[in-house]
Amino acid sequence: MTALVGRRPARKTSLLAVALGAGLVLAGCSGSNVAGGGPAAQGADCAAYEQYGDLAGTRITLYTSITAPEDQPHIDSYKPFEECTGAQVVYEGSKEFEAQLPVRVQAGAPPDIAYVPQPGLLATLVRNTGAVKPVPPTVTTNVDQYYSETFKAAGSVDGTLYAAPLGANVKSFVWYSPQAFAAKGYTVPTTWDEMVALSDRIVAEGGKPWCAGINSGEATGWPLTDWLEDTMLRVNGADVYDQWVSHAIPFNSPQVATALDRVGSVLKNPAYVNGGFGDVSSIATTTFQDAGLPLLEETCYMHRQANFYAANFPEGTDISENGQLYAFELPPIDPTAPQTILVGAEFVAAFSDRPEVQAFQAYLSSPEWANNKAKAGSDLGQSGWISANTGLDPANLSSPIDRFSAEILQDQNNTFRFDGSDLMPAAVGAATFWRGMTDWITGQSTADSLTFIEQSWPAGQ
Question: Would the keyword Signal turn up in this protein's UniProt record (predicted)?
Fold first, then answer.
């Protein structure tokens, strides 16, 4: 999920998806939020929390894959809710989240709330167990008011909202060094053609314009899924992208092949890659954590990766508009088309319908929580977390790249689309899509790679 440092937001959920597919039964969440005045809290302005009522003596268990040190801002962000309502939030982060959640459910002891890392997994919970119930009306109200339709749709299954978004990330970024660009006389490209022209200029001057890495253990290949998704949006537009993600058109359709070949015009071009690491083949062996570090050495000049990649740069790196590192939006192919931003998020799933759990769900979907979380992270000097909640004040984020990311999410001129692999069935999005992209970058043809993925798509999904 978005708060994790040093790896992509959790996507290795195959064990959990398999367990759910075997028919686990979860307790659902339903009903409306409680109302009334909460107990007086020391040092807290409780006016915004009166809607949740007096929850003194209650406990809410929370299970997530967000572990230390990224867990502390989350824990701190719950304190106003606890102080003003009297409820206690018991936080548990585990690196074994994906394996242990189904075990707990099977044992009849699920957490009250878990942070589900992908909408595809949420859909599995809903469709395969029949136990997940729609969110309380208060959560629906918050989502309708503070989130774009893209995020609401990602938390919905068959048109019904089951989970509100939590954190978010902007994936359509190209990292670069403003200081290196200024010294070389380079300007940030605003179209794909300008980006190619800049790449050619860097080559002509003896440099390597791009660096990349897709090695991520069991999840090797996922950075290329983002590359293809971003390029699909720019080549074919949002409507065709939606058809591809939902399998209304085959995975190996001509539109997808055209987009992947455009990715190949960058990443399979030996003149363009792989600055700081080697030739094209080194992309498969370079870890995604290391992939952008050559920007600091000027052995490459551009690296496409999401906002959360900021956490991989050395402590003390100046990540700002005129600093050592920053990012620009991956430019459109058609400069007259709306800018389309690829996004991701995790979602709040509840396994209890007790009033205190529903109240906490509502709090997590509110501007109060988003701003408390932003302040808590800033107080601890942490960056890399943002929210798509439009009630978030970007000024509460300490990092310039986080503020920039939040402003992008709040820009109504942008078109947003959710990470495609996170929406696809796990057998594709968390398996063959990764494998197919890895085979492609190591020499397999576009046609063979896409056909391999298409053949794995589960029947009826």
Answer: yes
